[in-house]
Each structure stands twice: as structure tokens, then as C-alpha cells.
Amino acid sequence: MRRRVLLGSALAAPALLALSSPPSRAQGFDHTLRIIVPNAPGGTSDILARLIAPELTQALGQSVVVENRAGAGGNIGADAVAKSPPDGHTMLLLDVSVLATNPALFPRLPYNAETDLAPVSMVIYAPYILTASNKLEAKDAQQLVALAKGHRGGLNAGNSGNGTASHLTQVALADQWGTEMTHVPYRGGAPALMAVTSGEADLTVAGATQSQPYAVNGQMRAIAVTGARRLASLPDVPTFRELGWTAEDAGTWQGLLVQGKTPPAQVALLYKALQEVLARPALAARIAELGGEPRADGPEAFRAWLSRETERYGQLIRAHNIRAE
Predict the structure, then answer these.
(1) Listed residue (233, 232, 228, 191) closest to 213, CA to CA
(2) Within a domain: residue 307?
(3) Domain containing 136 — which CATH number?
(4) Judgement on whether residues 122 and 256 belong to the same structural domain of the protein
């Protein structure tokens, strides 16, 4: 009966139907879509998801809502998407370094990132900023390295959790500098940053989306930034590349994935919508304010990045016998 009613409406008013039913809905997006963020509210992934959800709602012609599924180092949220129906209605948005590090950190994962999750696209890249406490004598990169080498037991390096990309970036830097650091894990980047502002921690490596305001306001000292270029808000702060440091492209790589068996046509439809959304000037400007840049790299580029970084992080984790908290 419902099909006959819809067909009759289409015959009676084809122009109206064309306006009210976006092409995406006709191809399978027929109910609310979810973006699952495997972290608590307030972090970079959560902020980004809530920025793009209304834009994707407009682009796809269906409501897009954000749902936080925090816990187990991101594995609870990732597993929820891995076990969701393969129809593209359930998406995972996260810092994808989690997917690159977790295979080496956790002996048993409830999902396989390579087969149970399908990349849609990178969404943004935000560089890391290495920041130091104002209580330290070091004013620049050279002074910080010298201080670290001369400090018995190493400087206290706050990070967003054991085995996270911020922690592993610190480990890689300490290796290159030929020194040790006392790694102090916190429950996320925000508490680590607060520890640096208070002087509880000597330094941290955190995403520019979170750390940039503290550095700009003088609550901590920015030492160096990852990525291809200096930040406009911190023009005097050199890049890791300029300093010849390792982990020069470390940072917050936020990506969007769906269930692994989602049809390629649905993945392509989501990617097209995301490209459209990220090209909107207002959204690009908001992302820039957060210290990031849109990166609408498609599924294959995303898959290649994940394979490469999983190997790189895995080697570092195994070499230092790092375990998840």
C-alpha cells in the first residue's frame, strides 16, 4: 500500500518529489545516520563530529547525530562500528592513530581494523605542538634538548595516555635526543596540558586544536610544531622538520570509517558528501581556528596511511615494550 501511495505521488508531482528526495536517500540512506566518537565529549574528535554532523545532514538529506562511546582506548566505539550493519549509516570518527597503535598495544582486539572497518576519508590534520612549562629555564628547542640531557632521570613528560600518539612522539624524540624522559600518562590531552600550565609536568606533546590557545595566551611555552609549515598563530615557533627532528608528520589525523563490508557505492557517496562539506569556506575557517586543516583524502590514501603508520608505531611500541594502561 505504501509503495502505491508513493508511486502515485511521484506520478502526480515529479518535480516536487525530486526536490524533497535527495539522490543520496534514493541510494540507501533512508534513516538517521550516526557518528560514533570513541571518546568523551570535549575532545578534538567530539568537537569535529559536532561541527560536521549538521553539514552532513544537509548534504545527505538525512539526520546525522553524534554518539559518544568512550572507553578501552577507543576500542569500545570502534568495535560498535565494526559490528554495525554494513549499510553506511553508522560511522566512526576518531584520531586514527588509535587504529594504528592499538594492534600492538592490545594482545586481543575484538575487531580487525583492516577488515572490519572501511576507510571513507581523512577529515582533518592538526599538528602537534611540543610545549614546555613556563617554570623551565629552556626558552627554545636547543635549550630544551640540552636541559633534557642534563636532567637526571629526565624531564617529566605529560601525555594523553600510555601508548597514545602523543606519548609515542615523546618516546621517538627522546630516542633521537639521546636522553630519557619520565613519561606521566594522564586521562587525555586536556589534563596533560593543565599539568604543564601548573608546572606539575615539564612538557607535553598535544594537538594544536587543544594546545594552541594555551601557547598563544602565554600559559605555556611553544617549542616546536609538527607538520609542513609553521602555525600562523605562532609564527616564531619552528617545525620539527626545520629542527631535523623525527616524527615530523605526527599529529591529530582525524578520519571517518564505516563497517568493513559496507558496499563501495555507499562509501563513495559518503566520501562525496564529506568532500562537499569540507570545501565549505565557513567550516574550513572554523577548522583553521582549531589549528587544523581539512584533509579530504579518499579511501585508498587513508588505507595506505593506516598500513604505513601501523607498522611504524608497532615497531616503536615493541622496541620500548610499551603496554596499554
Answers:
(1) 233
(2) yes
(3) 3.40.190.10
(4) yes
Q: How far apart are the first and last CA of the chain?
A: 56
- Residue at 106 is within a domain: yes
Q: Are 271 and 314 members of one domain?
A: yes
Domain that residue 232 falls in: 127-243
Distance CA(224)–CA(228), nearest Å, equals: 12
pLDDT in tens, 77-133: 999 999 999 999 999 999 999 999 999 999 899 999 999 999 999 999 999 999 999
CB-based contacts of 184: which residues, under 8 Å, 6+ apart? 156, 157, 158, 159, 192, 195, 201
Q: Are 55 and 277 in contact (CB under 8 A)?
A: yes
Give the alpha-carbon dihedral of 194, 230, 45, 192, to 10 degrees.
Answer: -20
Q: What are 176's three cell numbers? A: 633521537
Number of domains in the chain: 2
